[in-house]
């Protein structure tokens, strides 16, 4: 009879497993917090004053969320629908010690709440969800402000009963997918700047390849003007970007200047003061129908070509400047040293495209010993690449939101 009892027990186990599986399938699990990829970071050194901070919450899947500030005491509150914290405690998250206190837990029926007590009055500079695979991530950037500028919700009690509307993950259509062309400068018989046996062409290619991987991990389509040590003409770089349907062209360099003249990362955008001459030269050098996507300039004179290019730049130039702002902001947050004037204008050829937002980044100047040591430092390279990827993703999100407003 023992075998009969064992057989009966086996039947119970076999029937129990599918039932449990069906119960799990019937209940959609909420997102889980990926604690190892979630961080709180602060900009610059701790000098006893509130610093800009960046909160990144990495989730197993996208979810509705909201972020806001309250007073008495001053706190940043982030709510995420259905978020499961697992067995983790707030003090296990990287950077939790940057704030006086951090706590989290379930809130209401369907929500989870994260509360950060802040060392002073702040404002939210940016708050967005990067919803693309493989790891959706909520970014909330805050900066210290004066008491007069602090604008929290009326009270913690009001925040509990009158929450702002949750922000649902925005579905990304193919037309909204961001396409970025990375342009590692020089290459082939043009090594670029050289110092202490290092070639600019090799250094910027390494950064471009790493950045490509970081952007692709964020769901961004990436093309390179070169992926090995070859020469690509300046005009061809622009054409590659246009053929790829680029939303953004980012050119990477690490130049050399006489000692003491320049150091620190620098972002360049097209200098409008040089537009007239550069536009005429561009119209002379290129096939007319290659200058503006969707606009055939064949048969038109140089004056009309110049006017059309200037008209196109009234849209692309502010977007390039906006990208420059995102870059310098994220680089500063990552502790990357910037030039005294981090955003400058220049008449570089790769910035001339009138129909594609374009910026050129000097990672640093390899003629400067500190910059050169940084550029060659793998840890610094990781921070630089991460900051660039975050800045591009944030700019892309901003572009999507702007397009949505324009459609309305």
TrEMBL record:
UniProt-listed Gene3D superfamilies: 2.60.40.3500, Zn-dependent exopeptidases
Signal peptide: 1-23
Entry keyword Signal: yes
Gene Ontology biological-process entries: peptidoglycan catabolic process
SMART domains: Ami_3
EC numbers, comma separated: 3.5.1.28
Taxonomic source organism: Paracoccus alcaliphilus
MurNAc-LAA domain ranges (all copies): 238-393
Keywords, comma-separated and alphabetical: Hydrolase, Signal
GO cellular component, one term: outer membrane-bounded periplasmic space
Protein name: N-acetylmuramoyl-L-alanine amidase
Entry-linked InterPro entries: MurNAc-LAA_cat (IPR002508), N-acetylmuramoyl_amidase_3 (IPR050695)
GO MF entries: N-acetylmuramoyl-L-alanine amidase activity
Major enzyme class: hydrolase
Catalytic activity: Hydrolyzes the link between N-acetylmuramoyl residues and L-amino acid residues in certain cell-wall glycopeptides
